[in-house]
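Please decode residue identities from the backbone states below.
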């Protein structure tokens, strides 16, 4: 008898709950969700129950929570029971199913947020039962609950990094970048300003592809754009790269849920690949489908980067999927002095970079912003405390760095790292 109750599955418990609340024979809908959404939804209902968050009054975007319950695990001699929710109980756990009675569009539903275990592992699910079969609004109810849960979480309107831990998708809130568009050394910033303005207006969803070799300023430009966009306080920014280990279609799914959202993908080619190159080419089809669904919305924005446009399949970078491709090249000589001042806060040192010998040397090397930052870092060392203001010393340090990295830089590449 004890084995029987120990093996009593969560699905069995949900069926038991359906009997208790009069939902036997009703329609059911099950949605598998990622771990982070699973936790956020459960947390949101706890906040509703404890009156820490209210439900919007908008008739088209509201539901009423009548009760919230949790399952008590059966003991050796006890049956499984559904009890009133105890906010002191550790209900944000894998072991207990959360139940709620929800009213949506005049229909009564039993909501179950729980886990299912099978030979493939653990699945996180939201199950909705109830309602008239001809007016079964479970699908849109679940979508509404997920969106509302996220918008009332600590993630909405933040700068997030998505990554995977043991197969579970996680969010990490990142600090807002301190760099701004004023710190970006491009001759023409009008396209970036158009992007930021579109985000502020929440319309005309732009998709930009940044192309340029390492060190040419792609990353700093993305950070500056993110900082400007977050000023609107209405957009959630999501950052991913190859190391996130989250499928691209899952990334786009989160971006859709968080809308309005700005998705930043570093090294797009490593996530999708290109035909004939053998780099994650199996992800290309799913990436194209996910991107096509993403670009249909005016409140979805995308910035992706690649070191080489040919590494990104032409089907992915064609007009329609991206609105603009911006090329990043070596740093323009007119910005040498400004960048040195930004990195050193030393006006005397920065003025030396207007010297024609230094400008010609750096220009011939096709020096990037990354090289300039490294150069300043060396010049600020204590041993150059006085010598750094000598043109000859600066030229020698440039030569030293060039020799140091010449074997790592191909002939056709710029001196950036």
């Amino acid at each position: 008898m004890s084995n029987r109750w120990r093996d009593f599955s969560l699905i069995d418990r949900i069926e038991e709950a359906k009997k208790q609340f009069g939902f036997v024979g009703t329609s059911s809908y099950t949605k598998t969700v990622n771990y982070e959404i699973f936790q956020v939804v459960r947390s949101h209902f706890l906040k509703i129950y404890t009156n820490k968050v209210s439900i919007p009054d908008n008739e088209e975007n509201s539901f009423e929570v009548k009760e919230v319950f949790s399952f008590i695990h059966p003991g050796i001699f006890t049956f499984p029971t559904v009890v009133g929710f105890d906010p002191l109980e550790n209900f944000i756990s894998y072991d207990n199913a959360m139940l709620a009675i929800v009213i949506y569009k005049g229909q009564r539903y039993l909501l179950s947020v729980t886990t299912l275990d099978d030979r493939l592992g653990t699945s996180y699910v939201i199950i909705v039962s109830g309602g008239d079969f001809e007016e079964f609004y479970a699908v849109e109810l679940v979508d509404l609950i997920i969106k509302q849960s996220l918008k009332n979480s600590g993630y909405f309107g933040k700068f997030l990094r998505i990554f995977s831990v043991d197969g579970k998708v996680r969010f990490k809130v990142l600090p807002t970048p301190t760099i701004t568009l004023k710190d970006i050394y491009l001759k023409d910033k009008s396209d970036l300003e158009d992007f930021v303005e579109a985000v502020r207006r929440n319309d005309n969803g732009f998709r930009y592809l940044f192309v340029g070799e390492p060190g040419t300023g792609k990353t700093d430009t993305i950070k500056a754009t993110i900082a400007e966009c977050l000023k609107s306080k209405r957009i959630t920014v999501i950052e991913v790269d190859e190391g996130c280990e989250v499928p691209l279609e899952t990334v786009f799914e989160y971006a859709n849920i968080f809308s309005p959202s700005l998705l930043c993908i570093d090294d797009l080619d490593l996530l999708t690949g290109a035909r004939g190159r053998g780099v994650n080419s199996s992800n290309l089809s799913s990436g194209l489908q996910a991107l096509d669904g993403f670009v249909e919305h005016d409140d979805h924005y995308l910035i992706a980067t690649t070191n080489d446009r040919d590494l990104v399949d032409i089907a992915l970078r064609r007009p329609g999927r991206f609105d603009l491709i911006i090329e990043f090249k070596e740093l323009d000589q007119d910005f040498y002095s400004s960048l040195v001042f930004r990195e050193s806060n030393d006006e005397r040192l920065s003025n030396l970079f207007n010297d024609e010998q230094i400008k010609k040397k750096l220009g011939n090397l096709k020096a990037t912003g990354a090289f300039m930052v490294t150069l300043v870092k060396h010049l600020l060392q204590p041993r150059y405390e006085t010598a750094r203001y000598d043109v000859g010393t600066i030229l020698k340090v440039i030569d030293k760095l060039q020799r140091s990295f010449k074997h790592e830089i191909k002939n056709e590449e710029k001196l950036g790292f």
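Observation: The domain at 172-328 is CATH 3.40.50.300 (Rossmann fold).
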